[in-house]
Write a structure and sequence with these properties.
- It is built from 3 helices and 5 strands, in the order H-E-E-H-E-H-E-E.
- It is an alpha+beta fold and 150 residues long.
- Strands 2-1-3-4-5 form a 5-stranded mixed sheet, sandwiched between helices.
């Protein structure tokens, strides 16, 4: 007889529902991301973070998905959706930094956003926004009209 491991999921929050911050605008997202981002590396290497939200836009948690070099980081959609699904999120905010200080999204940034938005639709999970951060500023894909799916 073969022994097969049981797969189980567990979710336990460490804060009360009332204590969870709400993110319903790009400005709120930027403020939240600035608090969690390592200011010592924002101009050093590119990093990609997701913020998990419930249906009320309250933050369930966040996760650093990837860390790269000064010009890019690799983001696998499978990794992103593992975290979203395990975190029981209704929607997600994507974010990454540009160490160069430029806020202009690359073609790769736009394509990744489209792919993740399209994948999210399969699970009824919204991609609310994608922010590019620099030390002093940010760009919101939603505000720039770049949240169209491919």
């Amino acid at each position: 007889m073969h022994t097969v491991s049981e797969v189980s999921l567990k979710y336990q929050t460490q804060t009360s529902f009332e204590e969870k911050p709400v993110i319903s605008s790009p400005e709120q997202a930027h403020r939240f991301l600035k608090k969690i981002w390592d200011s010592d590396t924002i101009e050093l290497r590119e990093e990609f973070v997701i913020v998990l939200l419930n249906h009320s836009k309250k933050v369930l948690g966040w996760s650093k998905v990837s860390t790269g070099g000064p010009f890019a980081t690799i983001v696998h959609p499978t990794t992103v959706f593992q975290l979203i699904l395990l975190g029981n999120a209704a929607s997600v905010i994507l974010a990454h930094n540009h160490p160069s200080g430029t806020l202009k999204p690359s073609l790769a940034d736009i394509e990744l956003t489209k792919r993740l938005s399209k994948a999210g639709k399969l699970f009824s999970i919204g991609v609310d926004d994608h922010l590019i951060l620099t030390r002093d500023n940010y760009l919101s894909f939603r505000e720039e009209g770049l949240m169209k799916e491919g």
